[in-house]
Specification:
It is a single chain. By secondary structure, the protein is of the alpha/beta class. Helix content is 38%, strand content 18%.
Length: 404
């Protein structure tokens, strides 16, 4: 059995009564010996599954050399990782941090600083979209704008304007002389796995160019191969001025970063931003190991093939269980099941079948399997979801009979 929850942990998480002691690929083994198929990936973090040998070797090898030296000195693996990311994205600079929220904080600061050094210090406002999630710091909470996360933390940080998701006319109206940037997730993940269409992303890029605004893409959940491209915005053929990255880039090791063009990053000179642990040798070694795998020839093609299989099988599942599943959303291996029952009920039913998933907004359940998941594991996951839906339907029938 899992250890009893500690009364000394601040109770900010509603944790399931399961503890895991080891993992292998797409599988986790609990302390009681039960094996779970992990289609949550630590909320899109374990991009290459659990215990990937190349990542383990990179971490162990570096741990035997040096863990931390600080950014007062050169960190060669960080220089290499920045070069590889720049080559892969067409962006010019990378700043390494420890988390997605830190990456977004840096992206916000960079956008404001750009306009300040360009002679427009009044341009501090950033337009975001309702339903977005950009982090849990005070600034990133304000960027997301969701009242349930802001409640009780005092005045909302200034400088953020939200417009309805998908409302391009409202977006155009929201641009003012004080607007510095538009910031968005190519697919709103916490917001219910709601993707912006490629055409909309191209239109937003054009709007930014028209008004001299910076375009910030938050690819913290959508990036590092999860969409079938290295970054989801590539499907639209557009390029951001600033992009935040985290989760999958560390493969389970804490690593966040933001990338910027040379022009957008021109204000971020020595002393304007910093971090103690960001870019440490351990994180840089693992980040490079993740890119070794994800950028290998054929890897993203395999992700796209498995994503197509998953969507096809889920479409069949929706047809079999129309009382439970309303819609299949998302691209690549970032899939949302819009549920007709509470998504927490669907997640619990799946967990009872030893399948892990992640609830999201708009009553949606996220399926975020490792990018290394096999066709056999996809079929097994759908089989377990099928059983979960059937269990929910039996409960619905029993309630109906009891009420009759």
């Amino acid at each position: 059995m899992p250890p009893a929850p500690s009364s000394h942990l601040l109770p900010t998480f509603a944790k399931a009564d399961i503890a895991f002691e080891r993992g292998d690929g797409a599988w986790l083994t609990a302390t009681n010996g039960d094996r779970y198929l992990d289609f949550g990936s630590g909320i899109a973090v374990n991009a290459l599954g659990h215990g990937h040998p190349h990542l383990v070797k990179a971490l162990v090898d570096q741990a035997q050399k040096v863990w931390h030296v600080s950014n007062l000195y050169q960190i060669p693996e960080g220089v290499r990782l920045a070069e590889r990311l720049a080559e892969a994205t067409g962006l010019d600079y990378a700043f390494f941090a420890n988390s997605g929220a830190e990456a977004n904080e840096g992206a916000i600061k960079t956008a404001r600083k750009y306009h300040a050094v360009s002679g427009h210090p009044e341009k501090i406002r950033i337009i975001t979209f309702e339903g977005a999630f950009h982090g849990r710091t005070l600034a990133t909470l304000a960027a997301g704008g969701q009242q349930k996360y802001l409640e009780g933390f005092g005045p909302k940080a200034e400088g953020f304007d939200q417009v309805p998701f998908g409302d391009f006319e409202a977006l155009k109206i929201a641009v003012t002389p004080e607007t510095a940037a538009i910031m968005l997730e190519p697919t709103q993940m916490e917001g219910g796995v709601r993707p912006f269409s490629p055409a909309t992303l191209r239109a937003i890029r054009a709007l930014c160019d028209e008004h001299g605004l910076l375009l910030i893409f938050d690819e913290i959940q959508t990036g590092v191969g999860r969409s079938g491209k290295l970054f989801q915005h590539e499907w639209a053929g557009v390029k951001p001025d600033i992009m935040s990255v985290a989760k999958g880039i560390g493969g389970g090791f804490p690593l966040g970063l933001f990338l910027t063009t040379k022009e957008a990053g021109k204000g971020m000179t020595a002393g304007t931003h910093g971090t103690t642990f960001g870019g440490n040798p351990l994180a840089m070694a693992v980040g490079n190991a993740v890119l070794d795998v994800v950028l290998a020839p054929g890897f993203l093609d395999a992700v796209q093939n498995n994503a197509l299989l998953l969507k096809q099988r889920l479409a069949e599942l929706k047809d079999r269980h129309p009382r439970v599943i309303e819609e299949i959303r998302g691209e690549g291996l970032l899939i949302g099941l819009k549920s007709k029952v509470p998504n927490t009920d669907l997640a619990a039913a799946a967990r009872a079948e030893k399948l892990l998933s992640v609830p999201a907004g708009d009553n949606t359940l996220r399926l975020l399997p490792p990018l290394t998941t096999t066709a056999e594991e996809i079929n097994e996951a759908v089989k377990r979801l099928d059983a979960a839906c059937a269990a929910i339907e039996r409960t619905l029938d029993n309630k109906k009979d009891a009420a009759a």
